[in-house]
Amino acid sequence: MNFPAELKYTKDHEWIKVEGNEATIGITEFAQSELGDIVYVDIASLGKEVAKDEVFGTVEAVKTVSDLFMPVTGTVTEINPALNNQPDLVNADPYGEGWMVKISIADVSEIDSLLSADDYKAVVGV
């Protein structure tokens, strides 16, 4: 299982790639494998500020629907348009083409509370 060291993680299985005050967010390879085949991604938070740990959307798999939690407070600036027609990109490439949203970070100090790759591995027991 892949846990890129340059990313930060949440206990709720989201990853975040921080670039200055901007960030890209998705779900981890572990999360997509637990969910199974993803059939729909519903994110209606474009242009909205979403607080840390609040729900910014949902991901629907064949067997369940799961909330997506914001790793840090930020305004959603972009939603991955490819997921409308190809939600299975989340299964195929969770850290690349399967990203969920891009945000403008409100408080970069919140990044310090996120998990490193090694910390996240311990959470999921790998």
What report would you give on this structure?
By secondary structure, the protein is of the alpha+beta class. The protein is built from three helices and nine strands. It has a six-stranded antiparallel beta sheet. Strands 4-6-7 form a three-stranded antiparallel beta sheet.
Topology of helices and strands:
Elements: E1 8-9, E2 14-19, E3 22-27, H1 29-35, E4 38-42, E5 49-50, E6 55-61, E7 65-69, E8 74-79, H2 89-92, E9 101-105, H3 117-124
Antiparallel strand pairs: 1-2, 2-3, 3-9, 4-6, 5-8, 6-7, 8-9
- Uncertain segments: none
Give the end-to-end Cα distance, rounded to a whole number of Å. 8 Å
> Roughly what is the average pLDDT, rounded to an integer?
96
Q: Indicate the radius of gyration in whole angstroms.
A: 13 Å
Total DSSP helices:
3
Roughly how much helix do the residues carry, as a percent range? 10-25%
What is the makeup of the main sheet? 6 strands, antiparallel
Q: Which band does the percent of strand residues land in?
A: 25-35%
- What is the N-to-C succession of helices and strands? EEEHEEEEEHEH
Could you give the count of β-strands? 9
Instruction: Categorize the overall geometry.
Output: globular
